[in-house]
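=== Given protein ===
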Amino acid sequence: MSIQHKILRTANAPRTSPDETEVSVAQAIIDLENNVPELKQELRPLQISAAREVDVRGGKKAIVVFVPVPQLKAYRKVQQRLTRELEKKFSDRHVLFVAQRRMLRKPTRQGRVGQKRPRSRTLTNVHERILEDLVYPTDIVGKRTRVGVDGGKLLRVFLDSKDTTSLEYKLDSFSSVYRRLTGKDVVFEFNAATHE
């Protein structure tokens, strides 16, 4: 399978030709498909819509792979294994999968549309789904919004403590990527056993 078949530009993905990051991620997925027999069946139909490199604190980088929303369920089945294999290939970088979602702006008096805007296309809902995509396979067990004296908001997200060992090293990547995609500050913490 060629790289062009692995990169599917969805409605709100960039219209430009694939850049270096996207080509390298697509090639890595094709290589895994060809070299790892137990992943071949699951990876064959999967495509990516975009890939972007994000700077993380401490001089590191993270690769955010955007996938078409209809294929997200299939990605979730192999995501842990795929992430591990891609992080081996792209050493010193964390790999995160996020669905390429579409937001529709609030309807105004001027631009009347025939249909009501679905909840899944609202800004709030899309930002919540991005948060869930970033921390998958762990669960979000709580969220707190802290408003500072200056009016700035900080979102504290509590993750399930059972995944502490497997995700502890990625918390800075989660924060940096979420800030880059949404513009919101967020702090990830693991839920203490006594926290309610």
Summary: The chain has a mean pLDDT of 85. Residues 33 and 40 are 5 Å apart (CA to CA).
